[in-house]
């Protein structure tokens, strides 16, 4: 991808909503050069694709927007992973990879971790509550989700920051244009994370515990632990951890941002905290943290009147579908009192629906309960404009400077 196209991709990612509007209003489907894909922007079309996994494969779901340089790829060759994961699998393989994750993120397991999550949420707010100002992403949003999913997986708290950092670096390496030296540095961070996860795989194989890492190892390994097993398990753990913390981090950031951009709704939420569940759903719909995934056609199909050959790449834009006026009246209006509330697609749909959606919602609930109760005077810092992280995978502020 040349620099000019990189620039257009960067602009699109910082604010994709005008493109989404044009695509929904156009006849048929719109092909977007910056994404090298057909954009699926209408709610009905997104739902149709998600309900037909046999025709729209997930094999390219995580295809990079930017191919790493040979030097960065050489560094990645010293790590682990590179195997199909639940997000990129179809059919029986997808069911096999998904089953232990669904069990690991079951309602019972989420309920069991909530006291720890509440304790950590309160402790993190304690670190800045008396200061009168904070940068929420680094002080809170990038910390709570990693600590919580790390607890479920079974990571030592000392290893969580490195694993979280490696996850953010993996996203940057694959979805942001970086200079070669920065690509190499990012690849080194990713490989360091992978070696940490491989250590957990080997330890849990030798001495299983009551944690999700042990369950994943048991679900994959029958007999001796092979190098191939280790590659597969590191890929699974990396995917689970990145999904578990990056998405929730983005959701916390975008939710607080939108509430504070609409001060009357923030004030309403502080006065009536029982509205927090509705605010979570509206924020997830209005500025979707996970904007979309790619799909590839397995045969010739017709979608929205557009003929697509086998092998056509699509970008399934949850963020666009969630602004579709046909399903959400006044879709471009942020309104936590919205009623009736139509079901949105922020957490996907069907066989690839997010198994961690309950965990994400609970962490956001705890966050809003803490902030509305303890910092009702919260507002955006006027001298620090918000810049969005430009990727189509996780949309969130780079930084969110707040005062009170």
TrEMBL record:
Keywords: Heme, Iron, Metal-binding, Monooxygenase, Oxidoreductase
SUPFAM superfamilies the UniProt entry points to: Cytochrome P450
The keyword Metal-binding appears for this protein: yes
Lineage: superkingdom: Bacteria
Stretch forming the signal peptide: none
Similarity remark: Belongs to the cytochrome P450 family.
PANTHER family according to UniProt: CYTOCHROME P450 YJIB-RELATED, P450, PUTATIVE (EUROFUNG)-RELATED
Protein name: Cytochrome P450
UniProt source species: Streptomyces hokutonensis
